Amino acid sequence: xxxxAVISLLLxxxxxxxxxxxxxxxKPVDLKDVKNVYIGWVDINPADWRKQxxxxxxxxxxxxxxxxxxxxxxxxALAALKGRTVIGAKETGDAGAAGNDLYIKFSDxxxxxxxxxxxxxxxxxxxxxxxxxxxPLERYHNHFCTLSGCxxxxxxxxxxxxxxxxxxxxxxxxx
Length: 175
Known about the structure:
This protein is of the alpha/beta class. It has helices at residues 2-23, 57-76, 147-165, and strands at residues 29-30, 36-39, 85-88, 102-111, 116-125, 130-141, 166-167. The strands form two sheets. Strands 3-2-4-5-6 form a five-stranded mixed beta sheet, covered by helices on one side. A two-stranded parallel sheet has the order 1-7. The longest helix has 22 residues, at 2-23.
């Protein structure tokens, strides 16, 4: 009986959190005046190499770098960013965002032991430093893959969310 009550409470909590999340639709980011976009680095903790089962920190850093490269390429291919100059961070701490119109920044990044990526996305107007929109902290997972494959797959899910947030501009040459 206790098990049934616990399961019922868990399912109720899951349903409640899903319904609340569904009501909080983020506002799309208008790219009408955006010509240059900077995609930040998804800063997964390099110190987690042992926890993630890697033999060396360098192996783990390679996985992170490859996943970031794949992710940035996928973001650059988004329809909303066609016709714009899109630059991606080359490594953690890369501060190359200056001089761009839009900075896509990532925060609260964590990759847990169950191969789940936790990440929030922020769309920052570089001229005013104002946040134009965001994708709240979410958990992404795909359990039918290797760790590096999961990371890329989860970042593909983030790319999809970013694509839904960005609205194609109607400025000349941006269609």
